[in-house]
Amino acid sequence: MQTQTPSTNGHLVDLRQVTKVYSGAAGEFVALKGVDLAVRPGEFVAIVGKSGSGKSTLLNVLTGIDRPTTGEVWVDGAAVHTLNEEQLALWRGRSVGVIFQFFQLLPTLTAVENVLLPMDYAAILPRAQRPERAMQLLERVGMADVAHALPSTLSGGQQQSVAIARALANDPPIITADEPTGNLDSKTADMVLRLFEELVEGGKTVLMVTHDDDLAARAQRIIVLADGLIVNEKLTTNLHESTPIQRADS
Q: pTM for the complete prediction?
């Protein structure tokens, strides 16, 4: 495992010439083709593109869910591409909060127990303080009143809110979200985006995959993928400071 972090020019996320090739019965499929991507702390980045463009693969490589075929993935000072499964799990528990389209709450655990789970695994916070933090997070997303309910009794919006609280459990610097509003009504989707905006204002870095142009426009920066390549990048009017886009090799 690489132990010395190279210069990343202040970037929290630094992907360097990342490729991802999937092999199957039909042959090889190249999902990412030499992608360079750099994200600074406190950015809200939307990743957009047509189905099959590589959006979810990019997010999965960034979070260590998928391994790159070639290239380097540096996130929060860690060489993610060199970590073994145990190291990945520990790193992810501390550095990244992952939000899925289909919530992925454990069905046999209550809402508060789902939020407690990553805290118990990472063991960053003393055990005695974890229940109080879990309740505070549920209150933050408006779910304190269903803390002891099972996911099956909650609406889609409620489940996604609990999933966001779970992603924040260990106070990670990075939040990733793959189509987080895909199964939500417009009112609930707006609530989720407002929460992301509040997190960014508080210093978190948010990377969101979405197919919705209106939602993407609420991010500070939009990355456009096509056929496994970044084909366009643009800043939106939501960027607090109008600075030029920095690439990983800059």
A: 0.85
